[in-house]
């Protein structure tokens, strides 16, 4: 349980940093550049996904000694695509159906997205190899 708490805390800190980064990108594109809210969300997501993958791999879960941009990244990417798709569908549905401000709806959706992302990272894309040991790579 102790390891889970440490991972959850670190994941939350990475998430907070990612939130700030994506918040700035999303808000700047939406409010300053007046880019469509869905395009703003996608741009913020791409930047945040790469940032999050690197920090979650190297600091939070540490499944291996060297960062892997092959199979693990592909799984992380797939989980992220599912996450952003669900996010976009929910955001679009609520904005279009109820004519709510996209900014506030996205803020309400965030806790659900964070829980989904933690679960997929911990239990699927960034989990350690079988046996619970990190693979060692030679340079």
UniProtKB/TrEMBL annotation:
Membrane-topology annotation of the record: Multi-pass membrane protein
Organism lineage: Bacteria, Pseudomonadati, Pseudomonadota, Betaproteobacteria, Burkholderiales
Top-level division of the source organism's lineage: Bacteria
Keywords from the UniProt entry: Membrane, Transmembrane, Transmembrane helix
Compartmental location: Membrane
TM region positions: 12-32, 38-61, 73-91, 103-125
Chief location bin: membrane
Protein name: GtrA family protein
ATP-binding is among the record's keywords: no
Domain GtrA/DPMS transmembrane: 10-124
The keyword NADP appears for this protein: no
Entry similarity comment: Belongs to the GtrA family.
Entries under InterPro entries matching the protein: GtrA_CellWall_Glycosyl, GtrA_DPMS_TM
């Amino acid at each position: 349980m102790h390891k889970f708490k440490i991972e959850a805390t670190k994941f939350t800190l990475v998430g907070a940093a990612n939130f700030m980064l994506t918040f700035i990108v999303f808000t700047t594109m939406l409010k300053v550049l007046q880019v469509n809210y869905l395009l703003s969300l996608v741009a913020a997501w791409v930047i945040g996904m790469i940032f999050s993958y690197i920090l979650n791999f190297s600091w939070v879960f540490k499944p291996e000694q060297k960062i892997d941009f092959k199979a693990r990244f592909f799984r992380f990417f797939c989980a992220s695509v599912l996450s952003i798709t669900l996010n976009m569908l929910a955001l679009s549905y609520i904005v279009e159906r109820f004519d709510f401000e996209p900014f506030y709806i996205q803020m309400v959706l965030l806790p659900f997205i964070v829980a989904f992302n933690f679960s997929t990272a911990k239990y699927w894309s960034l989990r350690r190899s079988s046996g619970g040991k990190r693979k060692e790579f030679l340079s």
